[in-house]
Please model this.
Amino acid sequence: ARALAGSRTFLIGLFCETPIPTYVSEALRGAMARCREAGYHVLIEQLWGDKAAFRQQLETLLAAVRMDGAILLPPICDRDEALEILDQRRVPYVRTT
Model:
């Protein structure tokens, strides 16, 4: 069990709030290209709502799917609750602008 818990999933989450087609597609295209080069896959998730709803969505997602890292698109990259949850779960992340 300990070996399984420490293994990599080769899965990176890309989190967006409002999937504006051109912005998200450009971010996704770049993320997929770089992740593919490194042997990773990208999971896209839309997260939104007030603090409580947002926290619940992110906590539920992270409980169901273990990720090796996350890419946070605006405005999620500026949401304190996202950074706090990811830090608590020790999920590395990058914040984009």
Summary: The mean pLDDT is 91.
